[in-house]
Amino acid sequence: MSSHYANYSRLKFDWPEERILRITMENPGRLNSADAVMHGELVRIWRDIDSDPNVSAVIIRGAGEAFSSGGDLDLVKEMTEDFHTLTRVWKEARDLVYNLVNCSKPIVSAMQGPAVGAGLVAGLLADISIASRSARIIDGHTRLGVAAGDHAAIVWPLLCGLAKSKYYLLLCESVSGEEAERIGLVSLCVDDAQLHDKALEVARKLAAGSPTAIRWTKYALNNWLRMAGPTFDTSLALEFMGFKGPDVQEGLASLREKRRPNFTKDCPL
């Protein structure tokens, strides 16, 4: 494994084929929730990939039967209590989006089971997003008690329109893989057994294509996201202001109750 990836612990790496790097988010026993370590790793990995001449395409997936079950509640609690943690995660959330958008290598996501939180940022901002029929995509911000800022404010309206975005983001409704494909939230929906093979097939085609043409096509298309920069920055500020508000404590207590005694497929939030 390249020295680029030696200092990661929550992200695991393998090369299913030459020039295709596969990232697996792994937080054992917690459905790959994004704790402080994984959150930071999801920020910096895209810069490492961008500078790695051995990578022509990337796949990101979750370990086991989940993609990512959302933010680690201990980290959320710390954000409500410690200003330095709050501002650090705020900056990480901003950098995660911009690093994904600006990464020159094509990214394929393979989502199954719960897809929530920081993992979902990578899942939906990937250039080709593939969901299995079992996938349950949830933007959990309003359930926690904060504004649905982050990536949601810029990418959901572009992908599925304002009406659908408001419905799912305001109500915090779960979106199945099939429904996500129907409304344009993801590129493809496939049977669960086909998910990883399909992701590799797409990555293989991208890796075999013209790197210059693919890079600059991606750059041009992502200008739609860059144009929404002021909207994104404002939405992120509104979201993180909420962590000091009264609704978060109630939302945090509710989510902790749902997650007892441990994580389940039926309760990714």
Automatic annotation (TrEMBL):
CDD domains: crotonase-like. GO terms for molecular function: catalytic activity. InterPro entries: ClpP/crotonase-like_dom_sf, Enoyl-CoA_hyd/isom_CS, Enoyl-CoA_hydra/iso, Enoyl-CoA_hydra_C. Signal peptide: none annotated. It comes from the Bacteria. Pfam families: ECH_1. Belongs to the enoyl-CoA hydratase/isomerase family. This is Enoyl-CoA hydratase/isomerase family protein. It comes from Microvirga alba. The lineage of its organism: Bacteria, Pseudomonadati, Pseudomonadota, Alphaproteobacteria, Hyphomicrobiales.
